[in-house]
Amino acid sequence: MALKIWLDGRLVDESEAKISVFDHGLLYGDGVFEGIRVYNKKVFELDAHIRRLYDSARAIRLQIPMEPDQVKQAVEQTVQANGVVDGYIRLVVTRGVGTLGLNPFNCSRPSVFIIADKIQLYPQETYEKGMKVISATTVRNHPLALPPQIKSLNYLNNILAKIEAIDSNVLEAIMYNYEGYVAEATGDNIFIVRKGVIYTPPVEAGALEGITRAVVIRLAQKEGIQVQEKNLTRYDLYICDECFLTGTAAEVIGVVEIDGRTIGNGSPGPITQLLRRRFFEYAHGQ
Ligand code: PMP
């Protein structure tokens, strides 16, 4: 069934949802976006996503031509128009149509569009058995070049690392920052468990401030499990007891091999499984 796309103030058929070739979102990756889940017809953590969208926009001096509440309504409207029960939303703000030069202030008006569809990021089997990952040689963007907290339309840094993963016949790559500390996966945050304590890199290490990350930290603390933000090295990953990734699309997924080193006993560990279960319950019972 053809989707209804929300584009600049109205719902249009998928075939009519078009963006100009002069849009700087396309010409330069100049824009911001959010990926959001829908569980049981309810939009998951919508306020947090809207906040991050506006923060990303502010950081790149992009004025979203709508109030946050209007964007929220538009998201809800798109979900309803497409009858989405469990699905995934892509909310995008581009710089808009401009001239063939970089200057963003020559662009007339930012475009806002919303797609509500389905997503399956990793095969179901990897959720049960865990996934293998590699360390990418592509270094995560230096925060002084492009702060990784900005969820921008320019994902080439992540795509280059993803290509390394695919070339190595695995689904994900771990990215390190310019100092060699673990940053995140190409589209997910990373956690490890060691002696019952959960560790995750601080966002300053070059990670997106993941909304799933924040939820999982809260759920872990509720279980009485200690969570620490700490700079992690490749060695820390190699010797950990458990490792898992979090993200809107990925949810919570265990990692069972890193650069050929087996993690734990080679299947998702007990804390990973517990948090995966708790996340499912929380998301579906929201
Ligand atoms: N890091 C990157 C680079 C991402 O693109 C994402 C979102 N896919 C995440 C982490 C996870 O963030 P969230 O939980 O908010 O989806």
In short:
The protein has 286 residues and is α+β, with helices and mostly antiparallel strands. It contains eight helices and 15 strands.
Catalogue the ligands.
4'-deoxy-4'-aminopyridoxal-5'-phosphate
In total, the number of strands is 15
CATH superfamily of the largest domain: D-amino Acid Aminotransferase, subunit A, domain 2
Major sheet attributes? 9 strands, mixed
Mean pLDDT: 97
* CA-based gyration radius: 19 Å
Strand proportion, as a percent range, falls in 25-35%
Structural class: alpha+beta
Give the C-level CATH assignment of the largest domain. Answer: Alpha Beta
CATH overall fold name of the largest domain: D-amino Acid Aminotransferase, Chain A, domain 2
- Helical stretch tally: 8
- Give me the strand/helix succession: EEHEEHHEEHEHEEEEHEHEEEH
- Low-pLDDT segments: none
Describe what you observe in this structure.
- The chain folds into two domains: 4-117, Aminotransferase class 4, branched-chain amino acid transferase, N-terminal domain (D-amino Acid Aminotransferase, Chain A, domain 1, 2-Layer Sandwich); 124-283, D-amino Acid Aminotransferase, subunit A, domain 2 (D-amino Acid Aminotransferase, Chain A, domain 2, Alpha-Beta Barrel).
- The mean pLDDT is 97.
- By secondary structure, it is an alpha+beta fold.
- The chain is built from eight helices and 15 strands.
- The strands form two sheets. Strands 7, 8, 9, 10, 11, 12, 13, 14 and 15 form a nine-stranded mixed sheet that branches.
- A hairpin with a 2-residue loop joins strand 10 and strand 11 (197-200).
- The protein is 29% helix and 27% strand.
- It binds 4'-deoxy-4'-aminopyridoxal-5'-phosphate.
- 4'-deoxy-4'-aminopyridoxal-5'-phosphate is lined by residues 35, 158, 184, 187-189, 208, 210-213, 246-249.
